[in-house]
Amino acid sequence: MVDTAVRKSVLSGRHGGSATVRLTPAPAASRVALRAPAESLKALSSALGVTVPAAPKTSGRKGGRAALWLGPDEWLVIDESGADLMGALTKSGALHSATDVSHRNVAIIVSGPGAEATISAGCPQDLSLEIFPVGACSRTLFGKAEIVLLRTEDDTFRVECWRSFADFVFGLLAEGAEDAAH
User: Fold this and answer.
1) Which among 37, 64, 102, 181 has the fewest CB atoms less than 10 Å away?
2) DSSP result, 34-71
3) CA 143 to CA 149: how far, in whole Å?
4) Which helix (H) or strand (E) holds 167?
5) Phi first, then psi: what are they for 138, rounded to 5°?
């Protein structure tokens, strides 16, 4: 048995929002930064049990696992059960590069009827349902921090950010939530 360091989330115990928005730290998850050529996607999708998408601004989701398209050959794979993504990818037999970034990122769930307005307070992207539907994702800016944004439901988003920016992102989301309530 290998001893593994368990890191407490920088957002432990933090909750916020307003009458129209809830801000909740997402549970710990496994995350992998994945790079691969197009011809590897079928094998990688099979190994992960979720479609690794080839189209911009899309995601493949199944159960608690998601593969988010970030660039022509780049994805962020998230597993909410903490599964061994690196092991699954190793068994794929496909050409790829994978880096475990589980401890680099944290996520904040922004939910409620004011979720879109809350994120729009710091994000320059059009987040309307017509332009950014359920399942859409992108790497973008939120204030001065880079985030990965995934719309999981009509009124729910997952905001992924680096641990070092978590307090800033949470604080800016809290301000946006207050504004969205007015």
Assistant:
1) 37
2) EE--GGGHHHHHHHHTS----STT-EEEETTEEEEEEE
3) 13
4) helix 166-180
5) -165, 155
Q: For strand 137-142 and strand 145-153, is the pairing parallel, antiparallel, or unpaired?
A: antiparallel
Residue-level pLDDT, tens digit, the chain, 182 residues: 556 556 666 777 777 888 899 999 999 999 999 999 999 999 999 999 999 999 999 999 999 999 999 999 999 999 999 899 999 999 999 999 999 999 999 999 999 999 999 999 999 999 999 999 999 999 999 999 999 999 999 999 999 999 999 999 999 999 999 988 77
Dist CA 26 CA 47 (whole Å): 25
| E strands in 116-178 | 137-142, 145-153, 156-162
Q: How many alpha carbons lie under 13 Å from residue 65 in its C-beta half-sphere?
A: 16
Query: Would you state the structure tokens that stand for residue 124, as one six-digit string?
Result: 């320059």
Residue 86 CA to residue 54 CA, distance in Å, equals 20
- Whole-angstrom Cα distance, residue 52 to residue 96? 12
